[in-house]
Amino acid sequence: MPLTLSSERAKHKSGIKLGRVLVVEDEGLISETIALALTEEGYEVVTAADGRAALDLIHQLKEAESNGNGGMGLSLSQVCARSLDLIILDLMLPYINGLDLCRLIRREGISVPILMLSAKGSETDRVVGLEVGADDYLTKPFGIRELIARCRALLRRHHQFQVQPERPSIKYQDIALYPQECRITVRGEAVNFSPKEFKILELFMSYPRRVWSREQLLERIWGPDFIGDSKTVDVHIRWLREKLEVDPSSPTYLVTVRGFGYRFG
Ligand code: CA
């Protein structure tokens, strides 16, 4: 089977393991280079040489967790959340290509951040990659330092989002969101938001200036099983703007990024 698990649990100089990264790449040299660089940075690296091997590996992780202590009854998404911190996914892969694999992973409800790699660099590929649920996209050839920086940023954002319910408030200019109290104030005044609107705004405010496609928002807020139109997103954005913006017709908080989606701030 073309997959390997690094024999030694990599530790950062400080002795703290930074996280486990799954690298799915069929070009041996690239895969090795990435694995080496990430290991040196303190990450534990697991590699798979094609799409099928990657899926096998994800299912193996589930079995390993189920056989171990406390892994019983966990869903695949919960197992992945426990055992993987980041997936680096090449676009062109034998058996199952990167886009399909990304789609499959997200369909399983696995929310581990995904960095997509590709030799193609056109905007269409980038958009498609992000639409199927990748969090970031890097075009080959890339510098290893850039890859490491992107990985760090993705992990940081992901962890921030994970621990965010612990945060008493998320503030941006004159908007404050209190996750535990399900309360939002706009320019000092309490404003009522529906649960969906609250979730959307919480996501946006957790990632200021990050662009979200309609498909990504549908997936994160409505869930992977939602069958409906991406216009649903536009409608909710319109409602949010009416509550947030001084002038909803020229928004300054929820900004449209033409051809991509929406951004907060
Ligand atoms: Ca490839």
Primary descriptors:
single chain; Arc Repressor Mutant, subunit A; 6-stranded mixed sheet; 265 residues; alpha/beta; binds calcium ion; Rossmann fold; 19% strand
Q: What does this molecule look like?
A:
With 265 residues, this protein is an alpha/beta fold. 43% of the residues lie in helices and 19% in strands. It is globular. The relative contact order is 0.09. Mean pLDDT is 83; it is low at 1-16. Calcium ion (CA) binds at residues 26-27, 90, 92-93.
What does the secondary structure layout of this molecule look like, with pairings?
Blueprint: E1 3-5, E2 20-24, H1 28-41, E3 44-48, H2 51-67, H3 76-83, E4 86-90, H4 98-107, E5 114-118, H5 123-131, E6 136-139, H6 144-163, E7 170-172, E8 175-178, E9 183-186, E10 189-191, H7 195-206, E11 211-212, H8 214-222, H9 231-244, E12 254-257, E13 261-264
Parallel strand pairs: 2-3, 2-4, 4-5, 5-6
Antiparallel strand pairs: 1-3, 7-8, 8-9, 9-10, 11-13, 12-13
Write a brief structural summary.
This protein is an alpha/beta fold and 265 residues long. Helices cover 43% and strands 19% of the residues. The protein is built from nine helices and 13 strands.
**Secondary-structure element pattern, one letter each:** EEHEHHEHEHEHEEEEHEHHEE
Bound molecules: calcium ion
Per DSSP, what share of the residues sits in E-state strands of 2 or more residues? 15-25%
Radius of gyration from CA coordinates: 20 Å
